[in-house]
């Protein structure tokens, strides 16, 4: 998935297409503001804790069927979707950021993304922004 893992695809064009698709779908549902500021902050591993942005992230996970109504992220499926180049990183980072307790889905998505970026800042480039 383009949300913090590089999916199994035919290259960077497919990744960018997936990121654009997720952005287009979820930004119409959750209007995030100051996108250029968000992008610049993400490059510095600074993630906005704006409630709308949190739900935007949840929408991206939801579009890829990677989060349930209880806010549980499907880490196993996420790892399976990861390209071979990033499999080791995914296997190291994702399990450390998965929570198995019921919580608000928007908050769960935000917490997961924040954790993954904290453990491996290079993953920030895969956010659909």
UniProtKB/TrEMBL annotation:
Keywords: Secreted, Signal
Subcellular localization: Secreted
Predominant location: secreted
InterPro entries listed in its UniProt record: PBP/GOBP, PBP_GOBP_sf
Gene Ontology CC: extracellular space
GO MF term set: odorant binding
Keyword match Ion transport: no
Highest taxon of source: Eukaryota
SUPFAM superfamilies, alphabetized: Insect pheromone/odorant-binding proteins
UniProt record similarity statement: Belongs to the PBP/GOBP family.
Protein name: Odorant-binding protein
């Amino acid at each position: 998935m383009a949300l913090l893992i590089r999916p199994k695809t035919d290259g960077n064009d497919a990744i960018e297409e997936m990121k654009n698709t997720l952005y287009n779908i979820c930004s119409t549902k959750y209007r995030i503001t100051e996108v250029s500021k968000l992008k610049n902050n993400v490059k510095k591993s600074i993630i906005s804790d704006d409630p709308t942005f949190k739900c935007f992230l949840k929408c991206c996970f939801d579009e890829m069927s990677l989060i349930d109504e209880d806010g549980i992220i499907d880490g196993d499926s996420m790892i399976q979707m990861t390209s071979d180049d990033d499999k080791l990183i995914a296997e190291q980072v994702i399990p450390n950021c998965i929570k198995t307790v019921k919580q608000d889905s928007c908050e769960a998505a935000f917490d997961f993304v924040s954790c993954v970026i904290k453990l491996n800042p290079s993953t920030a480039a895969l956010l659909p922004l």
